[in-house]
Amino acid sequence: MIRTSGAMIVLSVGAGGLVLVSAASAAPADAARFTPGAPGVGDPYFPDMGNGGYDVSHYDIALRYDPKTKGLAAVTTVTARATQNLSRFDLDLVGLKVSSVKVDGHKAEYKRTGRQELVITPRRGIHKNGRFTVTVAYGGVPQTSDDPELGTSGWVPTRDGGVMANQPIGAATVFPVNDHPTDKATYSYTLSAPKGITTLANGDLKGRVTKSGWTVSRWEMREPMASEVSMVAFGDFDVLTGRTGKGIPNLTATQRALGLKPEDAKQFFTMTGGIVEFEASLFGRYPFSSTGGIVFKAGEIDPLETQGRPIYNMTDEAGPIPSRGLIAHEQGHQWFGDLVSPKRWADIWLNEGFATYAEWLYAERFEDEPVQDSFDEAYGTPADDDLWEGKVADPGRGQIFDDLVYDRGAMAIHMLRKSIGERTFYRLLKEWPASHRYGNASTRDFIRFAEKLSGEDLKRWAATWLYSEGKPAL
Fold it and tell me: Is residue 327 part of a domain?
């Protein structure tokens, strides 16, 4: 044996004489290098959220809610594909106690590190492009994520149950997840609760049975979904089902504790269907298999565009049901934010700017308020107001839910409309979400798309309305 330059060389005697064979080349093919997946996707705003080394295709989430303890007993199975040779990988999970982890049916080692990392080491490495399943059994009372800059997200208790409101990083309070918008997946839910408690989720209801005092419902979201817009709810709800004018299944639920009149619940159902149909006429075919909404009262959480079925917390909302403008905003997100999600959280103006503009378009069509008037009102904000601080296309972690991305985002869209003309702009409203259907896109992607569609050089528009601080001159 000769050691040279740190590499081991083996001398082998054969029929042809002495042969040099390096240990590396002699190693069996399966001794391939397996390395850990990254503990985060590297998003500058949330570097530890999400994980590297794999891509999730499906979550199967089984939750059993006990109103006596306010706790969950749960099993989640994650189906994924390795994007590298994996020696180990992480899932995001906050708080809840893990009792077992299996990879492809075999027990796997696991440990908890940091705030939310569940580090899993399978019995053997997983080859790149190999498909695998991870089954995690866990339970406990889920935590609410309270961020001093971003507010409340994740599991939010209500007087009769709880609601999952995950934007931006709350999903990990309820299930093990690759918690970043770039890893979309399909979902199925099996939700169990004592008889009398309604169970709700994204997607389509596939069945409900009651046995031995427990009701179990099964839901499926067949279109790819980002974890931040996944949703479940347990509580005492009145549920209405039917179809929109164009035949889209519509399910709305209103919490009985709100004391709504039947006509209020019916109005919410009807408004939701009508607004979805109006927006489909502008933005293209409705992208999911069903629509609807859930109205309830809980802590300090904002309404949220949970995929296919937005949630509306009425704590701070005037009136017994959400306003038409609010419904137009959250349903507008079904195209802008849900169908097409941001590549990075810095791109969130593509969600909120377009959803705010959807409100303006609705007000113009049905409330006799021209879009230009909405623009003028927002633009009339004094130049020294906080609204004009920061950059729309890079607002900073603590500003992703500020007026900066909502109102200035909508103003940027209106100025784009003026730049490219009416006909091209209305083409953009349909072709942009269609071009990135069920995927992700960045601000740069949007600018390139708009330039290609319009044939215009939009660098000046982008520099003025997206990448500059301060109030732009008109």
Answer: no
